[in-house]
Design goal:
The longest helix has 19 residues, at 2-20. Strands 23-24-25-35-34-31-32-33-27-28-29 form an eleven-stranded mixed β-barrel. Strand 21 (508-510) and strand 22 (515-517) form a beta hairpin. By secondary structure, it is mainly beta. It is built from 15 helices and 82 strands.
Length: 1630
């Protein structure tokens, strides 16, 4: 009864609370407006605020942001917004991060409302924000430190006003508040009761359609990286989907108050998606609405998903029996410590603003209904996005749910029973800050004493490796029983006489501390930083991204470094050793050898020095591996410093295969090698260079067990390719590597497993057999036949090793376990145990977070790191000592160091029981010194080696004499530490006596400023000119250039005196003698010197062969001017202008320029026409293109009546305007028309089509009805290819004789795609069919009737300005088209000529007919560059044929069960052929092998008019565009995984896939359309000549060849990366 009473009271209380809840009013909004310090957004339709800088960053999802932008259209973003047309009319998700309280087309022009915003830290606002969050998340302890408030007050919709209608005067008021602290961000959306008067807006491009889009409310993370190759939609959360759900915004809420919506939107922990308030909809009207539109077909998320019984009242304290959902627990690996870290004096941030102090942080409860991210309605798998590890150590982890180590491998053979075999819990890889100076290489021994420091090895040092690195004492023996967690979860711990070692289990490789599955591909993520000088230009890299992909089974490593600016990108191409590290780490192992990862594991430091020849530039590379991340990917950061030689922009590199010998010692691997390379550029041709590489790799070695690595191994680098993509600023390296014994290769290395030409899957291991035999075995965590492997979902199949209180999370090739809320892993790293009832103290939390605690996955402390000491009660011991440095100090109860108590090693520690006298505050000198030195605190950073550190005396004042410890310079300073002018002395000279007063120094003169500005750099340009100043600081009258040897006189301002410059080797001018005033240069001299570079030594040299004016002694133009290279001469006037009619060619007497020339008549229309094509006779005129028609003019300049084309031989008559007279054209070899005789117009006879049409019209009594059939004829009387019954949609195709094409009859709204069979006549002179060369790079080639067009690509963007006609083909109808990349030839089918032809893309090449017999209606064409074959469909006899590329070996593959075959495509890598048949009664897509075997139907349902077909090598899918269904779809070659890519096509005819885009020709638009598969963005190119476009293909700059499919390396990419096959790049260089 007591329990019943409690429940009844609880229900009554809840009911009363419902009754008492009132709607939100305007007065309930957070205070806003200019009076509160708000900024006001500019009025307008599409405005974005200036950046709002946050003093403390906030988290949105799991990413930290410091900038916000407020936009007119009801959104807040973390980046500057694009134009509204790119997002305002689209649904969620957006391409960029968005917080949307009301996303619609809002307009504040002409005073329609106001938008204000601010960042607030006032206690009243923060207190209210905390209360509102508490209302929605009652179990969360949250105290905000900042709030961002944005208010849209009385704003209106964008409206296009008409003369008959005025504005609607509807306005909305709403507010968004982002409350956040250092860990979490909550969003509050407030909608007052009368605040929403419109619920959506009309699109601007609705074309008079009365369509209104509901406002979008929710959150979108924007695009996120996907598998290093592209970007996909990130997680998003949508609240509204219809107009009614928008109305619900003020009528309901998810917080218990109508109009108030609260969401958890950001966390420093893992936050997969936005979490709505837990309370549910306590509202006046209706239920709480919180829908997810990320899956249109999925259910809405309403209050039914958050039942009240899951969220008891706050006053109900006994929650031990409550059950919470256990699915989709967020990954808590990256959580911050559950305690405030003590702030050491030397690292404390001064001057932080006051804020409300939060209570001690407690572990968050599991979030019910936690939402996983959705990836729209397309069939993208949810990616496992690799984390890019930061270069700092991870924060300590709190107790509670966290990641379990990966499980033991399945089916692994038993380990050695003679050794102890306890369960091996995981120890995550160390990720720590270096406490040593940059560039210092510190080898560390496994299981060495924690505080020991290894010997430092540099590349120049001779190391006696026999002496050992660390002396071992058996008193400290470490055993597996104590330290087994240091081994990988896939390793085993073995005890030896002096200690333990870790070894990888069977089917894994590594050093035991880190193990990876054999055969599985691997990824590397990291950052690259440093300063590199290219010539005299320093370039900084500030943490740019580095990604690498390694096919371990073949030893191939692909590396990409992004955001590398010019000229550094070109100059770094020779430094392929950056990516070569990953080649050595994961090289293909020959029998009995180990690659680098098998030796070092995932923690090492590589120091490399590169010396270039002949310039002797030096470059230092330090690459530090920081362990494996949560996805088991290697994290490697690189620091690069030094000088590298300049490489011309646009150059390419040629690098031959090479070898490197590696020497293996305890803890260090060394290597020294010489590398040759060639630089090929347009300007310099081929140049040979080399560099010397010296490197050592230090790692943690285990000295206790036997060594199983050979002392010397040879790395064979068989293939190297480098490229820099200027447009995207991406540098790429690709290498193929093997590791073996120095010397000649053995026969066993010819096995395909070692040659790399096997057919195993990229996730499989190649196991060699006898001779050339081998077998493929899927890597651990994958299953299949070895040639095709797929991931095993251990969680779904019940194969996980997770305990009863753990959750299983599947990973690629493995899985991990996570403890439920309230549990943590025990010492074995496997069993989840209840979190101890008594919480740890602050000291224990501090200590365990650094020490890794008892959790096997906690990070081990950095060797030499400070660990707090706690007493029995868990409090900080008053005296703390650093075990490595020997410093000791006293601390208070919070662990904060007491000032003045620190003692150095070897001195007596302070008595912490005695009070300490107050210490004076630090002086300016001490602050200056400690800021550079990092203080003496154990957590302080060490100063940069060679940096200047101020010297302070005992009182903390600057010592009067300061010296730089590295350079040796000394100088005097004043009390503020400022250098006293004139006191600096160089090294090895007596320093200035700083106690003597220094005479006041005169200010610098102009000359001294000039000189010092050029000389003041750390490394002045050795070839730069430096002014010379005298003792008084004035310019010396005679100035000389130290490098060139030129000398000249200057005035008092340093300006050169004209006429005084002398060249090297000549006596300089006497600058004390006055110089006669020089006349100013004439126009002729200015003209000449501007081309010739004048007398200035740094001017450009004139182009060889350029024309230079000739001037006389007075500087006037000579009357006769001659071109020194061409030999032409002509007369000019006083202004240098050519006198018409005076030009003479080479070898003829020049004109007498002293005689007057009769005035010349103006040019006629014919002469203008001719000269515009011919370039005139001027020396700079462009010559006409070969084969171009040039008009012929008579002596009077009129068009000659008879015109002939010099290349084609056609002749015709023209009128006085040069227009061709109809009926006068004659072909080559025939007598031309007599143009003096009048042409009698002739009337052609009626054609068959016209006669038939006339007879039917007469039959219908000259009044045919709408349902009567009349033949449709074109302007020449030929049958239109498409015939229809009257105005109906009952249509079919006909041939040139009017005969119906079988299978083409249609009765739906989509008319069949009928192709004409008669080419239209050419009314103008026909150009020669010469090939116009393609521009560099990749281009699209498309067929357009009588020509083949070329459309260059810039990345994936169609470069419309460079579009051109590749080949003009008079009298043809080009339909099918394909490209042979090996011979660089284009192939096409000609429907009018009934031929298949080809042409080389070399300039001036002409077409060559390959097949001209037995063809009736050839359409689709596919070229197999690998097998040197071509395939085509003939829709006349309905058959599919093939032949060699030269037309030989022709045979029919199929001539049955075909009705209207059209498109055909070949997958060369897998040897499959695909084609479409658009039979309107039974359309289908079929496939077979390239030999014609295994024919089968792949698709037959849900298609209508499948015109277009392509094979997508990125996704390994067959894709087609259907003009009937209007869809673009893809399917796997085995018929599975069919999905719709795009569903709103117009009328596609042909399709090709390239990178992340589809390109197709469209008959509705008569153009080329591009479709971005990631964003659905559509762009189009419409040629100037508007007519139907047919086939389309891609012409690559290099060939795609080889046998390894779908291994992508991104050599062609943009902002987003564009893939290309590795063999494509390599084979093109062979």
């Amino acid at each position: 009864m007591k329990m019943l009473a409690q429940v009844t009271a609880l229900l009554l209380g809840a009911a009363c609370s419902v009754c008492a809840v009132a709607a939100l009013h305007r007065r309930d909004l957070f205070p806003h407006g200019p009076q509160r310090g708000d900024l006001t957004l500019q009025q307008g339709d599409d405005e974005t605020s200036a950046v709002l800088r946050l003093r403390q960053p906030l988290y949105f999802y799991d990413t930290k942001y410091s900038d916000l932008y407020v936009a007119t259209n009801g959104i807040i973003s973390t980046q500057d917004l694009p134009r509204e047309t790119q997002y305002v009319d689209d649904g969620f998700p957006t391409d960029f991060p968005v917080i949307a309280p009301f996303l619609a087309d809002i307009d504040t022009s002409k005073g329609k409302g106001a938008i204000s915003y601010r960042v607030d830290e006032s206690p009243s606002v923060l207190l209210r924000a905390a209360e509102e969050v508490k209302r929605g998340f009652p179990r969360r302890a949250f105290t905000p430190t900042h709030a961002v408030i944005a208010t849209w007050e009385n704003v209106g919709p964008y409206e296009e006003l008409s003369p008959n209608a005025g504005p609607s005067n509807r306005v909305n008021t709403f507010q968004a508040v982002l409350a956040y602290d250092e860990r979490d961000t909550y969003a509050l959306f407030l909608y007052p009761e009368d605040g929403l008067q419109f619920f959506g807006t009309r699109p601007k491009e609705s074309y008079n359609v009365q369509l209104e889009l509901p406002a979008r409310v929710g959150f979108s993370k924007g695009e996120v990286p996907f598998m290093l190759i592209s970007r996909i939609e990130g997680p998003y959360y949508s609240v509204t989907s219809t107009e009614q759900t928008v109305k619900n915004l003020y009528q309901t809420g998810n917080s218990g108050v109508p109009g108030l919506w609260i969401f958890h939107v950001g966390s420093s922990f893992s936050l997969d998606n936005v979490v709505p308030a837990e309370v549910g909809g306590l509202s006046v009207v209706g239920a709480s609405v919180a829908t997810l539109d990320s899956n249109p077909n999925g259910p809405s998320e309403t209050d039914a998903d958050y039942p009240d019984e899951d969220y008891p009242d706050e006053d109900y304290e006994d929650q031990s029996e409550l059950e919470y959902p256990t699915t989709d627990i967020p990954d808590l690996d990256q959580k911050e410590p559950a305690f405030p870290l003590p702030a050491f004096p030397e690292t404390q941030e001064p001057g932080r603003g006051a804020s409300i102090q939060p209570p001690p942080y407690s572990e968050p409860e599991e979030e019910p209904g936690h939402l996983r991210p959705e990836f729209s309605n397309r069939d993208h798998p949810e990616p496992s996005r690799p984390q890019i590890l930061a270069t700092r150590a991870p924060e300590p982890r709190p107790s509670g749910p966290r990641e379990h180590p990966l499980p033991q491998p399945r089916n692994s053979p038993p380990e050695d029973a003679s050794q102890p075999q306890p369960f091996q819990p995981d120890h995550t890889e160390l990720e720590v800050l270096s406490v040593y100076p940059l560039g210092e290489v510190v080898p560390i021994l496994e299981s060495s004493p924690p505080l020991s420091r290894g010997h430092v090895v540099s590349v120049d040092e001779d190391v006696n490796f026999d002496t050992g690195v660390i002396e071992y004492s058996t008193d400290n023996k470490e055993t597996c029983a104590r330290f087994q967690q240091q081994c990988s979860q896939h390793g085993r711990c073995v005890d030896y006489s002096s200690g333990f070692c870790c070894h990888c289990q069977s089917s894994y490789y590594g050093n035991g501390r880190h193990c990876l599955p054999d055969g599985a591909p691997h990824r590397v993520n990291g950052k690259v930083s440093g300063r590199i000088s290219v010539g005299a230009t320093p370039v900084d890299l500030d943490g740019v991204d580095l990604h690498a992909y390694v096919v371990v089974s073949d030893g191939r490593a692909y590396t990409a470094i992004s955001q590398v600016p010019e000229p550094l990108g070109w100059a770094l191409m020779p430094v392929f050793t950056i990516g070569g590290l990953f080649g050595w780490l994961f090289a293909l192992e020959l029998p009995g050898h180990k690659n680098g990862f098998g030796v070092t594991g995932a923690e090492f430091t590589r120091h490399a020095e590169v010396t270039f020849h002949p310039g002797n530039q030096r470059l230092s590379i330090v690459q530090t591996a920081q362990g494996l991340d949560s996805q088991n990917y290697l994290a490697v950061d690189a620091r690069i410093h030094g000088d590298i030689p300049f490489v011309p922009p646009g150059a390419t590199l040629q690098i031959e295969p090479y070898t490197e010998t590696y020497h293996y010692h305890p803890s260090v691997v060394t290597s020294s090698s010489e590398h040759q390379y060639k630089v090929l550029s347009m300007d310099r041709g081929s140049e040979s260079f080399s560099y010397q590489l010296r490197q050592n790799i230090s790692y943690r070695d285990c000295r206790h067990g036997p060594r199983n690595t050979q002392d010397t191994q040879r790395l064979s680098v068989e293939r190297v390719f480098v490229i820099y993509i200027k447009e995207e600023r991406i540098l790429r390296y690709a290498v193929t590597n093997k590791i073996g014994t120095p010397g000649e290769p053995t026969p066993v290395t010819e096995n395909p497993c070692y040659k790399g030409n096997h057919e195993c899957d990229t996730t499989a291991q190649c196991l060699p057999g006898e001779g050339m035999q081998y077998r493929c075995q899927c890597a651990t965590g994958y299953r299949g036949d070895g040639r095709s492997c797929s991931d095993i979902d251990e969680c779904a199949e019940g194969l996980s090793s997770c305990g009863s209180q753990a959750l299983c999370v599947n990973l690629q090739g493995s899985h991990r376990c996570e403890c439920k809320a309230g549990y943590e892993f025990g010492f074995d790293g496997h069993t989840c145990i209840v979190v101890p009832e008594h919480p740890k103290t602050q000291c224990e939390h501090h200590r365990d977070s650094l020490q890794g605690g008892l959790s096997p996955r906690g990070p081990r402390p950095h060797v030499g790191a400070y660990l707090p000491q706690c007493d029995e009660e868990g409090n900080y011991r008053p005296l703390q000592c650093h075990g490595s440095t020997g410093h000791c100090w006293c601390v208070d109860s919070r662990g904060q160091e007491r000032v003045g108590t620190r003692t150095t090693p070897g001195t007596t520690p302070t008595n912490c029981e005695q009070p300490v006298a107050p210490e004076r505050p630090k002086t300016q000198c001490e602050h200056h010194r400690d800021s550079l030195q990092g203080g003496l605190g154990p957590r302080g950073h060490r100063p940069n080696e060679g940096a200047y550190l101020p010297q302070c005396d005992e009182e903390g004042n600057y010592r009067p004499l300061q010296c730089h410890g590295s350079t040796g310079h000394c100088w005097c300073v004043d009390s503020r530490g400022q250098e006293r002018a004139g006191t600096r002395t160089p090294p090895s000279t007596p320093p200035t006596n700083c106690d003597q007063p220094v005479a006041p120094e005169r200010p610098k003169t102009q000359c001294e400023h000039h000189r010092d500005s050029l000389q003041g750099g750390p490394q002045p340009n050795l070839s730069a000119y430096l002014p010379q100043c005298d003792e008084e600081g004035n310019y010396r009258p005679l100035q000389c250039h130290g490098s060139t040897g030129h000398c000249w006189c200057v005035d008092s301002r340093g300006q050169e005196q004209a006429g005084t410059r002398t060249t090297p080797g000549k006596p300089p001018t006497n600058c004390d003698q006055p110089v006669a005033p020089e006349r100013t240069k004439t126009q002729c001299e200015h003209h000449r010197d501007s081309l010739q570079r004048g007398l200035e030594p740094r001017g450009h040299r004139p182009n060889e062969g350029a024309y230079l004016p000739q001037c006389d002694e007075e500087g006037n133009y000579r009357p006769l001017q001659c071109h020194g290279s061409t030999g032409h001469c002509w007369c000019v006037d006083s202004r240098g202008q050519e006198r018409v009619g005076t030009r003479t060619p080479p070898g003829t007497p020049p004109t007498n320029c002293d005689q007057p020339v009769a005035p010349e008549r103006p040019k006629t229309q014919c002469e203008h026409h001719r000269d515009s094509l011919q370039g005139g006779l001027g020396p700079r005129g462009a010559r006409p293109s070969v084969g171009t028609y040039v008009p012929q003019c008579d002596e009077e300049g009129n068009y000659r009546p008879l015109q002939c084309h010099g290349s084609t031989g056609h002749c015709w008559c023209v009128d006085s305007r040069g227009q061709e007279q109809a009926g006068t054209r004659t072909p080559p070899g025939t007598t031309p028309t007599n143009c003096d005789q009048p042409v009698v117009p002739t009337q052609r006879p009626d054609t068959v089509c016209e006669r038939w049409r006339a007879s039917l019209v007469a039959q219908y009594g000259d009044q045919p009805a709408g349902n009567h059939y009349l033949p449709q004829c074109d302007e020449l009387g030929q049958f239109n290819p498409l015939q229809c019954y009257g105005d109906s949609s009952y249509c079919w195709c006909v041939d040139k004789d009017g005969r119906e094409v079988p299978g083409s009859r249609s009765q739906d709204s989509v008319k069949p795609a009928c192709i004409p069979t008669v080419a239209p006549p050419t009314m103008r002179p026909t150009p020669r069919p010469d090939v116009t060369p393609l521009p560099p790079g990749t281009s699209l080639l498309y067929a357009q009737g009588q020509q083949i067009g070329a459309l260059p690509l810039n990345g994936t963007t169609m470069d419309k300005d460079r579009a051109t006609v590749l080949l003009a083909l008079h009298g043809s109808i080009v339909v099918g088209i394909d490209y042979d990349c090996r011979e660089k030839k284009v192939y096409w089918t000609d429907l009018a000529g009934r031929t298949i032809s080809r042409a080389s893309l070399e300039p001036g090449a002409e077409p060559e007919i390959v097949i001209n017999t037995g063809l009736l209606s050839p359409e689709g064409l596919a070229v197999d560059s690998l097998r040197r074959r071509m395939f085509w469909v003939d829709s006349g006899p309905d058959k599919i044929e093939m032949s060699n590329l030269d037309g030989t070996g022709r045979r029919v593959l199929f001539d049955t069960e075909l009705v209207n075959p059209r498109a055909i495509v070949v997958d060369s890598f897998r040897g499959n052929l695909y084609w479409t048949d658009w039979n309107r009664e039974a359309p289908k897509i079929e496939t077979c092998t390239v030999e014609g075997r295994n024919r089968r139907i792949l698709v037959k349902d849900g298609i209508g008019l499948p015109n277009a077909l392509t094979f997508d090598t990125i996704t390994n899918e067959l894709c087609w565009a259907d003009a009937g269904t209007k869809r673009l779809e893809c399917i796997a070659p085995d018929g599975t995984g069919r999905r719709v890519i795009y569903h709103s096509l117009n009328y596609p005819f042909s399709l090709v896939s390239y990178s992340n885009h589809f390109f197709y020709t469209d008959w509705r638009r008569d153009g080329v359309i591009s479709l971005n598969r990631d964003t659905d963005e559509i762009r189009e190119y419409l040629p100037d000549q508007r007519s139907h476009l047919y086939g389309i293909t891609v012409a690559y700059p290099h060939c795609i060849s080889g046998t390894v499919p779908a291994l992508f390396i991104y050599f062609l990419s943009p902002h987003i990366l564009k893939p290309m096959l590795y063999t494509d790049i390599y084979m093109s260089k062979r």
